[in-house]
Amino acid sequence: MIDVCGTEGGVPEKKTVKGMVFDIKRYSIHDGPGIRTTFFLKGCPLSCWWCHNPEGISPGPVLIRHPGRCIGCGKCVSVCPTGAWSLGENGSLRYDRAACILCRKCAAACPPVAIEIAGREMTAEEVLKEAKKDIPFFDESGGGVTFSGGEPLLQGEFLIECLKKMKEEEIHTAVDTSGFCNTDTLLRASELADLFLFDVKHIDSGEHELYTGVNNAIILENLESLDEALAARGAGRINMRIPVIPGFNDDRDTLARIAGLALTLKTLSAVNLLPYHSAAESKYNNLGMEYKMGKTVKPPEEKMNEAKEIFLSLGIEAVIGG
Predict the structure, then answer these.
(1) Sign of torsion over alpha carbons 85, 107, 61, 121
(2) Residue 259, SS3?
(3) Burial letters for 294-317: b for 16+ Cβ neighbours within 10 Å, e otherwise?
(4) Residue 300 in 3-state DSSP?
């Protein structure tokens, strides 16, 4: 979102760009090279069945419940202005998500942090201030800042401002993207970011849409456009990231087709094969969302090694994990 701060003498003042951030993860080693600080931006046009950050899908704040932390003090009920929180006849706590206005009063009053609101506004200056705290770790490890999500390019103007701020401080930047975004915004970001962590989930458009909610035509076109732009400029690289999902894209034919796509990229630095895991299942329960992956289990090590070998056989550097 973009806020105009005010006017003076009829001339608009400089616009302050604000974004919606739902998490900041420090000391990350899976979101690009070195030790990194990752800012997770709200909003995503995809709805992948296995999404690890379902709290980031909605563009606005969302309330997360942690029932296991609740001590039954009832403070959320006493401060709630709409009655979204109430006590049942047996003393059990009830939450009406439809009545909630996300005023944050319950989260502020909850002693064990059993309630949290995912999503808060930040300016690019505030993001930079947080990032600068970790510069010693960046310098020592060759790390930097990663913008993830959600889909960070959905908040294009905010992301661009953040990238500019980081560049001014010579902080290495990476953008973790699904590729489903405005092409012009992507190419603007390509002039500033040092690295793109570009997700490729499937080549077949029908399968892609079934499991993510969107067709992959724009994604594949954007990958090509980004690669061409980076190659022409001679700056910036792409890490292709492939979530290996059992029953979706873990068969040899699908992985071979993705490897063939990787082979066409001029600015590819590596392929990351990310094994599916169900660690985020509890998040869906706490958000009142359906977890569609059911009892799907993590791919065995043997399966991941077979996937890796497909890429290595073509001369493509591939690693398991981030």
Answers:
(1) positive
(2) helix
(3) eebeebeeeebeebbebbeeeebe
(4) coil
pLDDT of residue 92: 86
Which amino acid belongs to residue 65?
R
Q: What is the pLDDT of residue 10?
A: 58
Burial readout 179-206 (b: 16 or more C-beta within 10 A, e: otherwise): bbbeeebbebbbebbbbbbbbbbbbeee
List, in sequence order, the alpha helices (H) in 29-84: 75-79
Domain ranges for the chain, please list them.
2-60+119-320, 62-118
**Which of 297, 229, 296 lies closest to 267 in space, CA to CA?**
229
Tokens standing for residue 179? 């590729």
Rg (CA), the chain: 21
Q: What is the pLDDT of residue 122?
A: 98
The token pair at 118 is: 């995912």
Q: How do residues 164-196 score in pLDDT, each as one tens digit?
A: 999 999 999 999 999 999 999 999 999 999 999
> CA-to-CA distance for 293 and 23, rounded, in angstroms?
24
Closest CA to 19 of 153, 195, 168: 153
CATH class in words for 62-118: alpha beta
Give the DSSP H or E segment for 271.
Answer: strand 268-275
Rounded to whole angstroms, the Cα distance separating 254 from 251 reads: 6
> Cα dihedral sign for 279, 283, 286, 289?
negative
* Listed residue (206, 293, 194, 170) closest to 243, CA to CA: 293
- CATH 1.10.260.40 correct for 2-60+119-320: no
Q: Give residue for tokens 């690295």.
A: 195
Name the residue among 44, 60, 58 with its Cα closest to residue 120.
Answer: 60
- pLDDT at position 90 is 82
Q: What is the pLDDT of residues 46-68, one digit of tens each?
A: 999 999 999 999 999 999 999 99
Q: Which residues of the chain carry a pLDDT beneath 50?
A: 1-8
Q: What is the pLDDT of residue 44?
A: 98
In the DSSP assignment, the letter for residue 82 is S
Angle, alpha carbons 215-236-321 (nearest 5°): 65
Query: Which token pair is 80?
Result: 């709630």
